[in-house]
Every structure is written in structure tokens, then in C-alpha cells.
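Look over this record before class:
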Amino acid sequence: MYPEHLVAPMRQDLTSAGFQELRTAEEVDQLLKDHKGTTLLVVNSVCGCAAGAARPGVKAAVKYSEAKPDKLVTVFAGVDKEATQKAREYLLPYPPSSPAVALFKDGELVHFVERHHIEGRNAQMIAEHLIEAFDEFFSESAAK
């Protein structure tokens, strides 16, 4: 577990952009179980690729995409362990990965970006990838 004073700025990086933190297993279940609509879940992390690529890329994708998810949520790996473990149940069959980004549509996982897809890429590349996924899964034409 990391001290809260160290992770607070990393939490705020997403919450200041409109993400809701899910800090307990119950909060994860309440949001993801049987949810109708679209959800973007970020598995936050203290690592450098979260700070340099994942968080900035996710924020840019949400800001610049026309097809936006209904809900923006995050769990913090290595900090909020129960919430992260519960979220990872919804991410199966993928192995645990942090940072990571998951897209859900009507409660179903439709796209997952694992750590190895984040490492070595910059924020712009992450944003462009997510915008394409938003267009594919969240646009009005995808609903038809």
C-alpha cells in the first residue's frame, strides 16, 4: 500500500477531469453490475507509464472525442485493493494489469487496453487509440 499523501495527486489527476473514484468493492458492483449505457474504467497506478501516457491519454481522449462514455470511473491499483480486485473480476479473461483502460457497454466489457499496450507509447498515441475505440463502441452509429 502506498501512503495517501503520495497518491493523492495521482487520484486528483483523474478526478479533476470528471472521473468518479470507486474505492470499495461495493461501489464497483453498484456501478458495473447490470449497468446500462457506456463506461470508461481506468485502473490507475503509481508507475511512470500511468503518469506519462495513460492518465494524460485518457483525459485527452475524453476531452477531444465526439463519442464520449456516459460514466468515467477509476480504481487505484496498489491502493484501493478491494475495489481493484472487484473491478478485475469484470475485466476477465484479461490478467491483472495496471495501468489499464476498459470500455464497457451495457455492462459488457467491449475493449481493454492492457499495460503492455500503454508502455512505450505516448499520451497522444493512447488518446488516438481510445478515440477510435470510443467511435467504434460508443458512437450513435455503433448503437444501430
Summary: The CA atoms of residues 70 and 114 lie 22 Å apart. The beta strands are 20-21, 38-44, 71-76, 100-105, 108-113. The chain has a mean pLDDT of 93. The longest helix spans residues 48-64.
